[in-house]
Amino acid sequence: MLSIELKQYLRLKQLSIEQPFIDYKQRIWLLKKLLFLVQTNEKRIINALNLDLNKHENEAYFSEIGLILRELKYTIKNLKKWIKPKKVKTPFLLFAGSSKIIQQAKGLCLIISPWNYPFYLTMMPLISAIAAGNRVMIKTSEISKNSTLLLIELLNNHLNKDIVYVIEPNIENITTLMQQRFDFVFFTGSEKVGTLVTQQVAKFHTPITLELGGKCPVIICDDVNLEHSASKIMAAKLINSGQTCIAPDYVVVPKGFADKFIDYCNQYVETHLSDLNEFPKMISPQHFRRVLNLIPKNINVEYFESVQKIYPKAFFSNWESQIMQDEIFGPLLPVIEYDDFGQVVKQISIKSQPLSTYIFTKNKQKIDYLSKYIKTGGIVINDLLVQLISHNLPFGGVGSSGNGRTHGYAGFLGFSNSISSYKRMNFSTKLSEHPYTNSKLKLIKKLIK
Question: Residues in domain Aldehyde dehydrogenase (predicted)?
Answer without folding.
Answer: 24-416
